[in-house]
Amino acid sequence: MSYLPTIGLETHVQLRTVSKMFCSCSAHYADALANTHVCPVCMGAPGVLPVINAQAVRFTILSGLALNCTINTFSRFDRKNYPYPDLVKGYQISQYDNPLCIHGYLDITTDGEPHRVRIRRIHLEEDTAKLTHVTGELGEGESLIDINRSGVPLMEIVSEPDLRTPQEARQYLQALRLVLVTIGVASGNLEEGALRFDVNISLRAESESEFGAKVEIKNLNSFRSVQRALEYEIARQTQALEQGQHLVQETRGWLDDRGITVSQRTKEFAHDYRYFPEPDLPPLILSQAEIDALRASLPELPEARRQRLISTAGLSSGDASVIAADVSLARYYDELVHNGAPPKPAANWLLNDLLGLLNSRGESLETSRVTPARLTALIALVQNGTISTSIGRQVLAKMLDTDVSAGSIVAAEGLAQVSDTHALVSLIEETIDANAKALVDYLSGKEAAFNSFVGPVMKATRGKANPAIVRDLLRQALDRRRATVQS
Ligand code: ADP
Ligand code: MG
Ligand code: ZN
User: Fold this and answer.
1) Which of 47, 233, 343, 455 counts the highest number of beta carbons within 10 A?
2) What is the 408 CA–ligand 3 centroid distance (Å)?
3) Which ligand lies nearest to the CA atom of residue 45 in the structure?
């Protein structure tokens, strides 16, 4: 008997705002000393009043629009109560039954087939403090708390259970991250915990139409751990079902180093969050005009960009996908073309040459000395025949080490192609004279002998001769020889 997995994902996204969700503390804590970005509001002192961060609201609306959601003109904040040390107030301000965005979708491509993943809702809440469990001097079981993260705007995107495999779940998350980074609402930096995932998975027999009991695995922080945890759960639940066990709804934790999940609590012991409308905040009322203005400000989205690269730039679907899947790559490519580089050579030089060189040197596109303007100038030199493609590659490698332009390198090192026919003609005559055997072969009709002259001529010019011109002049020279022999 085989079982079908059903997967739904909840994605927590830290928003790239300047300040926190309900106070004016800085939301950027990566390099800050612990507990320095704090104030009475995010510390939960009695009597203080939260204020809604307008930028966080705009970012959430933008995300909703990019994910094809309906934006609710009326939404509200609620208190979610639970006792845990990472929540200094004793409650989290979140949105419960009136979220900002509902009913969206994200289209992904799996195995070459389009697949639509429905988005149930997107709501706004605040991040919690960071707990670090330590051992050592402080002894086993001590925990340190850093409140800097508490109150950072957190957007939660809840999918419908529309994903069918761990691989598909990963593709959805990658596509989602790309959209959020493209529209500028999130850094998407997984190492810094700027995206965190709760995954829900159930199995059902093929003959069964109802979903099975779902297992939720909370707080995963990488695409890899999402995929591994799901693969593990599918294997574990399949085995349990095959043994005739009855699975129950539960929350499980993922132990990354051991590659397993362990039960944390079952439905019976689920938290009762005692949600109620946040009494310190008014409802959030939006006008359609505000929403429309935000819609108009959306940049080109990744899927539209991919389509454009195929249809107007004429790129292969492979090249278009690679470029569209990376925000900095796409920006760089668009600048090349904007600066006048022809679309296809631009893609080739960027993907095949520049990225290859950067990878082998462990450098990144953003910090490379070869700016789009500089690469455009190099491409122009190759396109107009000043230098050959292979010389162009050498020049590119040099550009990575210096602040010198392609034009200056070509001039300083005398790399321009030799198209001066006088010099080439005498070189060709010398080469023919020096290869008497090849000449006899050629004159006796062996076309292959032609190429045995090309190599030496190119070599003598150290690769700078324009190959097309060399071949032309060589053909003429050999024809003259044939005429002399016949007369
Ligand atoms: P809860 O009330 O426990 O939060 P929800 O129904 O609100 O559960 O769904 C939370 C997440 O779990 C959503 O992303 C949803 O798509 C997913 N989900 C719901 N039911 C299932 C199921 N049977 N199997 C897998 N995922 C599910
Ligand atoms: Mg949940
Ligand atoms: Zn604060």
Assistant:
1) 233
2) 54
3) 3
